């Protein structure tokens, strides 16, 4: 447990530093946007390419790992739709609010996941985390767009082709494909070292941007929905992953990484999607913020549980 806390605490201290830098305006708001853009389109993709290009994929239970994550995501999605259809009627809330709770419960923050998994499980863990990105990012983008199209209030409804293009051009997905191709074909040492140096700078900057995006000001307006959005993600999702791992027979580091992928906060990009597609952006911002805080306590608990199973 001490090892886990020692690995996780720096992640949240960096997030807190990002928040303080943003609030004190030491780093201007426009700079944060540029940093996030650089991390998303260059630094983190290079980290993924570096990891996958020389990973021993034969030692990774890819099929079982994929099955656990996909079924967990679909299971949580169905559960939330049922809750909306049954319970939501007794406690009426708007469609946009439901879409934000849905995103908060199902999506995951790849930056935080990789930052936690790397120090604990090394290259094997990061390889699995990269595979989790390759599995979850396309699936969650499609599901989130569908839910926002149904429940969000927006005049803009993305065409299927536009959604497909967005997923196909996602730099994290492209990085996963490139890494797998280079794993098969081989990569020259000089190119590997170049990518390694660039990718190494990604995690710290990415975590600073997570902190800079936190907003405490609007949380009091959505107490009940905020609580649901936090607990379904940080307690419900990892619980579903644990159940699926038991059913499928997934164990070891692969099971632990899958549980971490389920237990990390939701993606910060969920706020952007909520704002652009008619979701409740204020609620989404609050869910993202408080999930980061609560995850400091729940994530070590689920890592401990995963390692004791």
Structure description:
- With 309 residues, this protein is mainly α.
- The protein has a single domain, classed as Na+/H+ antiporter like fold.
- It is built from 13 helices and no strands.
- It has helices at residues 2-23, 29-53, 62-86, 95-106, 110-151, 160-168, 171-185, 189-200, 202-212, 223-248, 252-263, 269-276, 281-308.
- Helix 10 runs antiparallel to helix 11.
- It is globular, with a radius of gyration of 19 Å.
- The chain starts with a helix and ends with a helix.
- The relative contact order is 0.19.
Q: Which SSEs are present, and which pair or pack?
A:
Blueprint lengths: L1 H22 L5 H25 L8 H25 L8 H12 L3 H42 L8 H9 L2 H15 L3 H12 L1 H11 L10 H26 L3 H12 L5 H8 L4 H28 L1
Provide a concise account of the structure shown.
By secondary structure, the protein is an all-alpha fold.
How many domains, in number, for the residues? 1
Count of DSSP H/I helices? 13
**Major β-sheet profile:** none
CATH architecture: Up-down Bundle
Structural class from helices and strands?
mainly alpha
Rounded to the nearest angstrom, the distance between the terminal CA atoms is 14 Å
Overall number of strands:
0
Taken as a percent bin, the fraction of beta residues is: under 5%
């Amino acid at each position: 447990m001490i090892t886990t806390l020692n690995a996780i605490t720096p992640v949240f201290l960096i997030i807190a530093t990002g928040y303080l830098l943003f609030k004190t305006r030491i780093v201007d708001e426009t700079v944060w946007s540029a940093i996030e853009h650089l991390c998303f389109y260059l630094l983190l993709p290079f980290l993924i390419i570096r990891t996958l290009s020389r990973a021993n994929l034969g030692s990774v239970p890819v099929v079982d790992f994929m099955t656990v994550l996909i079924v967990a995501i679909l299971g949580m999605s169905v559960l939330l739709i049922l809750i909306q259809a049954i319970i939501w009627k007794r406690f009426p809330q708007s469609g946009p609010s439901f879409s934000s709770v849905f995103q908060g419960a199902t999506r995951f923050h790849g930056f935080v996941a990789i930052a936690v998994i790397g120090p604990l499980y090394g290259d094997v863990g990061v390889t699995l985390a990269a595979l989790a990105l390759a599995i979850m990012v396309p699936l969650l983008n499609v599901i989130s767009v569908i839910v926002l199209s149904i429940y969000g209030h927006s005049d803009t409804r993305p065409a299927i082709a536009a959604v497909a293009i967005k997923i196909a051009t996602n730099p994290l997905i492209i990085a996963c494909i490139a890494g797998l191709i280079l794993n098969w074909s081989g990569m020259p040492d000089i190119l590997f070292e170049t990518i390694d140096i660039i990718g190494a700078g990604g995690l710290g900057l990415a975590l600073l941007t997570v902190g800079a995006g936190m907003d405490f000001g609007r949380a009091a307006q959505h107490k009940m929905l905020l609580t649901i959005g936090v607990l379904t993600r940080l307690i419900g999702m990892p619980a579903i992953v644990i159940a699926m791992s038991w059913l499928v027979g997934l164990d070891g580091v692969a099971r632990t990484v899958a549980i971490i992928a389920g237990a990390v906060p939701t993606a910060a990009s969920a706020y952007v999607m909520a704002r652009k597609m008619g979701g409740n952006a204020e609620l989404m911002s609050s869910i993202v913020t408080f999930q980061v805080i609560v995850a400091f306590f729940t994530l070590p608990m689920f890592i401990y549980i995963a390692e004791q199973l």
